[in-house]
Every structure is written in structure tokens, then in C-alpha cells.
Amino acid sequence: MSRLKLVKEFYQYVRQNKKLWLIPLLILLGLIGMAVIVSQSQAIAPFIYSLF
């Protein structure tokens, strides 16, 4: 429940202050973070390395 509230507050902040450029930046950081976590697995690592 608390995470949903955090996302809602962030969205309201972005909307009020016209900081729409923050949304793609956070999505990109999230995707990179997920790639790092997934690449820790030995079976998936060769596929991740071939992407970069």
C-alpha cells in the first residue's frame, strides 16, 4: 500500500511541476537495474552481454 502511495505522490509532483522528463529517466534506470539483477544469474548472463 505504501509503494502505491509513493507512486501516486510522485505522479502528482511530476504533473504539478511540469517535470515530465523525469518519467522516461526513471523507466530507463529501472530497466538497467532489472538487467543488472537478471544478469547475476549464470544461465542468462551470455544473453545479456550480447545485448550490450
What does this protein structure show overall?
With 52 residues, the protein is mainly alpha-helical. Helices cover 77% and strands 0% of the residues. The chain is built from 3 helices and no strands. The N and C termini lie far apart (36 Å). The mean pLDDT is 82.
Mean pLDDT: 82
**What gap, in angstroms, lies between the N and C termini?**
36 Å
- Proportion in helices: over 70%
Secondary structure class reads: mainly alpha
Count of helix runs? 3
Q: What's the story with the biggest beta sheet?
A: none
The share of residues in extended strands comes to: under 5%
Shape by Cα distribution: elongated
Unreliable residue runs = none
Rg value: 15 Å
Helix and strand pattern? HHH
Give the tally of β-strands: 0
Please name the defining characteristics of this protein.
single chain, 52 residues, mainly alpha, elongated
Question: Summary?
Answer:
The chain is mainly α and 52 residues long. The chain has helices at 2-17, 22-38, 45-51. Helices cover 77% and strands 0% of the residues.
